Amino acid sequence: MTFDPLRYPRLALGLTIAMTSTVSYAFLCPPQYQETLVAPMFTSATTALNQAISAVDAALSAEMEMYSQRMTSAVAVLTKQKAITANQIADASKNAAQTTASALNVLAQTERVKEARFEYGGEFGQGYQPCVVYSGRNLIANRESQLGEERRVRMMSEIVAAPGRYVDPVAARTQLARDHRDNFCTPAQVASGMCAQPGAMAGASLTAATLFEPMMEGDPAYRAKVAFVNNVAGLPDAPVPAQAAKSPAATAYALAKAQKDALVSPALASFKEVQLDYTGVNLTEGGSDIPLATRLDREVKRYLGNTEEYTTWSKVMAGQNPRGLMVEMLKVKSLDLLLLEKQYRQYERMEANLATLVAGELRGKMGSTQSAAERAARQHAAQQIQ
User: Fold this and answer.
1) Burial code of 177-191, b = ≥16 C-beta within 10 A, e = fewer?
2) What is the pLDDT of residue 243?
3) Are residues 156 and 147 in contact, defined by beta-carbon separation less than 8 angstroms?
4) Which terminus of the chain has fewer CB atoms gathered within 10 Å of its CB, N or C?
5) What are the start-end ranges of the E strands in 222-286?
6) Is residue 280 left, alpha or beta, with left meaning phi > 0 and alpha meaning psi from -120 to 50?
């Protein structure tokens, strides 16, 4: 049941007054507590609170110290890791830079090697087979210089009637005839009764074509070259007896032989020049080699002949750079100069032979003039006697 203050106004007023009086009394007159009972409890609570606060403060300090040490260690570890990482990065950067520099150096060196090989290598910058050509040209130069001395030696050792030699002509004729019968006798000479049978190299010692056949010194046909020159030179002059060596006749004989030897020596030297050029002789210091004419023929055919080497040379020239072409041109020019030098010496020998012919002709005329003078002197003496 709800109380309605409007229906009971007096009752409501009384209740209000009573309640107001009670509250006012409570504020004005609070209850008193017992000092002896409450004070120890406050002291105990305060002590407990202080201890709890001290414990919390100590725990917090310990926690803060521990975490501070951990933070310090973590910062140190992090700093060390960053330092190590920085060193590793620096080392990696340095190694990468060194590797890059080394690679660039290798590339530059490779380029220089490629350029040097292209400019100066045997494939593109030195012409056709530089080592082979150089050794061949060097051998030709050495043989050319050594054959000059060899020519003089063989003129005296292989020619029976060599200039300045005195040999019994009968013994020389007998030996030459025996060699001819054994090796070079022709069928016509067999028919004439000179030989019993044709020789293995019939007529080889009687034709100049034998001198121009390339061969080695050990070849049996080499004797045909020596025999041909001996047939041209003829029989030697007999030696002067020792007891008549100082007589006027011996002196005149020696002078006449010297004049004859001087006249025939250019022709004999030319024959020996051809013989040695087309013969692979065994030199005293240079050893043996193929004939010089054969080597020169190969050198010429390399540039002009219809040979396999010429085809190979043409292919190599197609891949040469300008420097290689210039080098090869110099090789061709040097060969041309060598051939011109040999041609010049041939012309000199031809000139010497022509001079010999002129001297021989003049010698014949001088002999006729001297004979006429002697006849005139004899006729004048006969007239005086009469």
Assistant:
1) eebbbebbbbeebbe
2) 82
3) no
4) N
5) 279-280, 282-283
6) beta
